[in-house]
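thought: user wants a sequence for this fold. calling inverse folding tool.
action: design(structure=
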């Protein structure tokens, strides 16, 4: 097997699940989250396709608008290697959070190759600013941000610079960051087929890799970071989460590393449907 093929396998989490052949796994995953998300958009009172920018993809969905104005808010960024997926597939996470009295905002963003990854990072900053304004206008008690896979990368990319430029009021209500099955060193992706739509150079990949960033400026005043990964995720994703946790520890950043046994890159998200699931409890507890 060539180096490229080896890297493609290593950075393709579907290869490492222990439940199904990878094509069956992906089909079942997409069918489940698509079906459940459609149900949730009918069940949970929501405001869909709220613009935060000028492009068609720069929209977000707010779930739980029937809850009190000051209800806590969880903001979610989807994965898909910055080139697949979309917010409509992830409405499903709002059900369990709504049952726990929390609003959910799911963010959509432009996908590669229609833009570059640097552009997506800027879009997410714009979207989060919109969410923070919404939280303050409604006097929300708290807000937390989470992302899965590439979405975890986008969530941590808000730090340290974007966070340092927030107002004191915005920083106070931002309680926690949930990084689920994330990728923090993009350099290995340059030699994979995943990079064809991304068009990352080695220099791009290094500059966009949180693994190499300095977070010490926020050590005294940052939200808590939850770094969560599943036992049956890609070994590369597990290792990167461990290394990034170590980096945060060395820089005196408040964090918690959580390894979820017997789960993979996909059912770690599927189980967000359950209001008693560990990650749902972590989110709700952090917001309250």
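)
observation: tool returned 288 residues.
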């Amino acid at each position: 097997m060539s180096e490229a093929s080896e890297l493609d396998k290593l950075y393709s989490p579907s290869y490492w699940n222990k439940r199904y052949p990878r094509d069956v796994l992906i089909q079942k995953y997409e069918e489940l989250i698509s079906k459940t998300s459609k149900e949730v958009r009918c069940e949970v009172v929501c405001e869909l396709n709220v613009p935060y920018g000028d492009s068609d993809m720069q929209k977000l969905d707010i779930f739980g608008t029937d809850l009190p104005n000051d209800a806590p808010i969880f903001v979610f960024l989807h994965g898909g290697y910055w080139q697949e997926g979309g917010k409509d597939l992830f409405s499903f996470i709002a059900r369990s959070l709504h049952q726990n009295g929390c609003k959910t905002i799911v963010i959509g963003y432009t996908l590669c190759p229609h833009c570059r990854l640097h552009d997506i990072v800027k879009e997410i900053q714009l979207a989060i600013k919109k969410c923070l304004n919404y939280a303050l206008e409604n006097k929300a008690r708290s807000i937390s941000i989470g992302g899965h896979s590439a979405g975890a990368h986008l969530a941590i990319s808000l730090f340290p610079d974007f966070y340092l430029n927030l107002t004191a009021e915005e920083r106070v209500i931002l309680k926690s960051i949930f990084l689920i099955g994330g990728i923090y060193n993009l350099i290995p992706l340059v030699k994979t087929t995943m990079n064809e739509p991304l068009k990352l150079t080695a220099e791009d990949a290094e500059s966009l890799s949180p693994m190499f960033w300095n977070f010490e400026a926020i050590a005294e005043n940052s939200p808590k970071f939850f770094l969560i990964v599943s036992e049956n995720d890609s070994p590369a994703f597990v290792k990167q989460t461990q290394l990034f946790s170590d980096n945060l520890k060395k820089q005196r950043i408040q964090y918690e590393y959580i390894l979820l046994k017997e789960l993979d890159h996909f059912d770690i998200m599927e189980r967000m449907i359950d209001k008693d699931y560990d990650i749902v409890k972590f989110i709700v507890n952090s917001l309250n």
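thought: summarizing for user.
answer: Here is the designed sequence. The beta strands are 46-51, 59-63, 73-77, 103-107, 143-148, 174-180, 224-230, 255-260.
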